[in-house]
Design a protein that fits this description.
The chain is an alpha+beta fold. It is built from 7 helices and 4 strands.
Length: 244
Amino acid sequence: MAITENLNTDSARIHAVNNWVYHNKGFASNDRYFILPALGPTPIQVMERGGDCSDKSRLVAAMLNSIGIRAGLVMISPCLDCGFIHTVVEAQYENRRMVVDPIWNIDYPTGDGGFLGVMDLAGTSRGRERIVELQHQRPATDKIASIPEMDAMFDYAVAMNWKKNIVTQTAVFILRLNGYQPEFFFRPRLLEDPKLLLAIMLTIITIIAAIGGYLLEIGLRFVMMRIPRRMTCSNADKLGATDG
């Protein structure tokens, strides 16, 4: 990828990709989609026409995944039971994680060469402090001047809405039972790429259909093998009755 080819660290690559997506096209919600509106735009469609926070974050995550950097979307909520109001990206760099925001072109440096992830920012004022810092650094006309404060608060940020339904709640229970911490999981890539999701769904359907067809064929063979035996037994009974 030309954007990152001369960069030597993952943190620099993440910063470069986020900066490129921020400057690429506009920030209006992308109304394009792949086959079904519910699937939303693909990363390529976002690259071609831009998009809102979830659209651009999807593109950043896809671009980072394509160069071998683990990344996923994180959804921000103002309270525990509130709806989600903003989406950013969390990515793996060197030995830690860092948050980037392609709508406001933000990352969260530590001051010693490192960067902050969601867990580092949650429960602190570091996000709001970073906004103030960037507002002083950038021109007054920069869009950072109008950022809502809640877009940089990570107290209730999650990669997955584990409370969504009984299926996700059961998944959390099973994961915790096996010693895993779901809050540290990256959001699965297939949820951000409609083509990939559809391809996986079609593959699963094809496998199920193939297994179903195989079992049906075995069942039909078994039935066909039983029918001649019954007919033979029936004919033998008739012959015996006639001889008597």
